Each structure stands twice: as structure tokens, then as C-alpha cells.
Amino acid sequence: MIGRMADAVTRGVGDLTAGVTEVFDPTLRLGVTGLSRAGKTVFITSLVANLIDRGRMPGFTAGSRIETAFLQPQPDDTVPRFDYESHLSALTSRDPHWPEGTRAVSELRLSFKVRPAGLLSGLRGVRTVHLDIVDYPGEWLLDLGLMEKTYDEWSERALARLTSWNASDYEAAMQAVDATAPLDEPIAQKLARSYTAALHLARDAGAYDLTPGRFLLPGDLEGSPALTFAPLPPGEAPRGSLRREMARRFEAYKSQVVRPFFRDHFARLDRQVVLLDVLGALRRGPRAVEEMRAAMADILTAFRPGTLGWLMSLLGARRVDRLLFAATKADHLHHGQHARLTALTEALVRDARSRADFAGARTRAMSIAALRATVEETREHQGVDLPVVRGRLLSTGREAALYPGELPDDPSHILNPARQGADAWLDGDYDLMDFAPAPLTLRPGEGPPHIRLDRAAEFLLADRL
Description:
This protein has helices spanning 2-24, 40-52, 84-92, 138-142, 151-164, 168-175, 185-205, 213-216, 242-264, 278-284, 286-300, 310-314, 338-348, 350-358, 412-419, 453-461; strands at 27-34, 66-72, 106-114, 127-135, 271-276, 322-327, 362-367, 374-381, 384-393, 399-402, 435-436. By secondary structure, it is of the alpha/beta class. The protein has 3 domains: 21-136 and 269-370 and 442-464, Rossmann fold; 146-261, no CATH class; 374-436, no CATH class. Strands 2-3-4-1-5-6-7 form a 7-stranded mixed β-sheet, sandwiched between helices. Strands 8, 9, 10 and 11 form a 4-stranded antiparallel β-sheet that branches. It starts with a helix and ends with a helix. Pfam families: DUF463. This is Putative ATPase. InterPro entries: YcjX-like (IPR007413).
């Protein structure tokens, strides 16, 4: 407790210094997160490229006030730099491919030279505004919910979830050990590996609320004792036993992994984007959709949404005042269905948005494609004209046209079966494919093609520029 108090005081002094500095050199910290396969890396890469070359950003009104945008070294020397150049090269090469996904925290600073606007614009010169983009896995965000749980409480929930996802291999491994016996490190490591494998299988099947998140994306902690534990049923825990050591490592994970992440990265954000692969959840079925809805509600409990007075802002206090929920891969649908995808996204995150709105934050939901990989066509099928999208299949590289099915006008036709635990969609599965990025020919001043990335930037950034 004394250590936490001292850490809070030290952090407060640092925040005060940063707050005073930002009066003269304003900085906006934008967090980008989302669960695996939501498209975080592509979103950041395309956003930065389109903020530097704004030819495809007509909906971004602040673009007319930006004289130039350029990359600078990020201010946090201990945080890896987001590898923007390599990711952009992957998307724009002669044989484009999707870049590697997010596996740890990274950061990028984009600075703007901005002309002032308004009645007093003639009295002020060009100013510099910094945008610090922080990329982090959404799986790590789910861990913040562990802070209020004991080892037994977490174990009970984790085991119940694995049972519901038929993780029989881990159950067999767990039943083969005596949790009251003295700790045997090889047994502990075997249990941790088996539990990690069960988490991966559950995620592939459509589960979202899987903790600890670092077991799925360990980063530089892979193999460490902090990640060498697993859930066990409640029971006796003699000193030196396997169960006692598992509980100790669970507490160490919270104090040495989860809390520093919240303190050093998450608690310093001003704006936040949560990317959602809603179409991927639809493809996996009703249960996956309900898992995503519940996970989004849990994730928002980790945010501190709302507004701050000018004095608290000056003193360096941080609070997320704008929150964007973005359904990605909108280019997998014809634009005639984008409004339905947005409505479904709004319904999925309604609980989370209501909580944030009540706290004073501005929230929005929209459908986007950070990099457009398809073109739209109309094709006749059995005498009916179908709106389709055509692109290069990721699996074979061949061109294919896709009609994924019709999203309902009423999102409840999706959410009700999901809440009721339906095994499959009543009207059949949604036929969705994975597309590879299309070869690009970019003219000077243009960023990569996208869908509504300019509107996302308008909501997140325009007021601060």
C-alpha cells in the first residue's frame, strides 16, 4: 500500500509537469484497441498515411487547417515504436499483404503544423499539435476486470467458461494433479501450457471474454513465472502447495503486469477507438455475437469516461472524453448494407455507450474499412440482381465475387437469438470470406483508399486541431 501511494505521488508530479508543458505544446493521446483480428495495425497505418496525405479525407474538416503533418520520435523511450513504415510497405507493395497483428504495446507520434481559425486567427501564428497513437491488444484490456477478483473467484469463472467451450483437455490435465501436493515446477508449467492451449481453442471457436489476456498475447513475458499459473477448483491450499503457489502468481500477475499497464499506458489516454470485427462474430454464430456484446460491456468498465474541467486538465489529469466503436471490414459488404451494420454495432455496444454517455463522454458507433480491399458490383442470380463485392481471396489469391447475405433491418433479429443461446442463425449462416489487400496505385497527395476513415478522424481529432 505504501508503495502504491508513493507511486501515485510520483505519477502526480509527472502529470503536473506534463500538463503545464501541454499548454504550450498540446498533445492528444489516442488509444487504439480491439480484440484479435479486428484490424488495429491496418487502422493505425492507414489513418497515419491519410493524415499525412489528406487527398482522400474530405470529411475531415480540420484537414484544411493543417499545413503539414510529419512523424517524430515518440516521447516514451521505453515503449516500442509502432512500425509504421514496414506496415505501410506491406499494404502498398506490388504484392500487398496484411501486416503482422498487434502483440504488445507500441506508440507513434504524428505532429501537425496547424493554422489557427476563428476571429483571432490573424493574431496567432502556426502552432504545433502532437498526436500520440498508442496501440495495445484488447485482450490485455479484459485483464483490468481481474483487479477486484480473488484467485478462487477467477478460477471458478474461468473453469465454468472452459466447460462451456468443451475444453476437455485442460480438465483432464487439471484432474491428474494433486493441488495440495508440494509445488512441482514442471507440473505447473504443464498446467499453464494446457490452459493457454484451451484459451486459444476457445477463441478460435468464438469466445471473447478470455483471461488472463497475456496468455493469448504474452509479449516479452512469455515463459515467466507471472504467466505460469492456471485455474484450480477451490480447496485446501497448504503452505508450499501447488494451489497456494498458483494463487500467489495470480496476485503477482495483477500487481506486476496488469496494474503497471493501467498506470503507464491506459490511464493516460484522452480518446479511444475500440475496433470490432462484427462480421467475424456473425460468421462464427449467435454465441460469438453474445460473447462480443458481453466483452464490450466489461471492457468499458475499465475506462474512465467523462469530461474534466479546464483546471484539472491543466494539472495533467486524464479522462477519455470521446469513445468510438468502429465495426471494421465494412468493405466486405455492399454499401447498401452499411447502415444495417452500423445499427447492429450500436445495439451490440448499447450498454457500454449508455454508461459512457452518462459519465459525460461523447460516444459514436460507425462502420469503417481502414483499407478498402474490394469493389462493388451488381450481378444477376436466378433472375435477381444481387449487390456483391469483389476482391482477391486471401486463401487462394483468386478473384471472387461475394454476396454475404442480407443483414436484418432490426438488430434484435440478431441479438435475440444470441442472448437466448441459439446454436445457429435461423436463416442460415452468413457467407463471409477473407480478402487480401488489393494492389494500389496512389497519386501524389493521396493515402490508401478507405471507407469513412475521414469521419472517424473528424470525431476523434478535429476539435483539438
